[in-house]
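Task: complex structure prediction.
Instruction: return structure tokens for all chains below.
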Amino acid sequence: MILPRSFYDRPTVEVARDLLGKVVVHGSAAGRIVETEAYVGMHDAAAHASRGLTPRTKVIFGEPGHAYVYFIYGMYYCLNIVAEAEGSPGCVLIRALEPLRGIALMRRRRGVERLEALASGPGKLTLAMGIDLRLNGADVTEGDFTVEDDGSPAEHPIAEGPRIGIRKAADWPLRFWLKGNRFVSR
DNA sequence: CAATAGATCATCT
DNA sequence: GATGATCTATTGC
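Output:
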């Protein structure tokens, strides 16, 4: 079942935790979310939205349930899902996926064989899933790019800790992952 | 093993 | 013109 918009219309941290175990689907490729990070708006110096409303960040201020995709370091894309009501910035960075379907395609796009290396990082999963700037602003509650609940039981326990790869507010415990899962990054 | 350099560009100052 | 929510290859213990 595709997650309804109401799933995303909640506090960002709740959405980040509840997205663990859900499935990102893009075309024939699919992967289970095993690691996320929350970026919680204006007061979060590490969040892009803290700089205010710009052409780039307007998606984060928009309707929940849309993708925020941005290009970083001249090489990689990162995938976020917008949370919180329209006008209230907040998004969840998807940091790692467990490959489920379209694995041959992911191997071809990544150029590596090892299953654990296909999507165990923000830049890796976007490449494996074929996600780029064209999907920025896309609605993930319909179409060929969605987030679904496949009915599998929630995997416990959930661990939390500091976010990775940022300089500001680097000690906030807003990173969540499935403890012991071998597809988590790093 | 850990540390670092290089790739390379959208976005903002 | 600087910066960055990354990754890989390479260098140096």
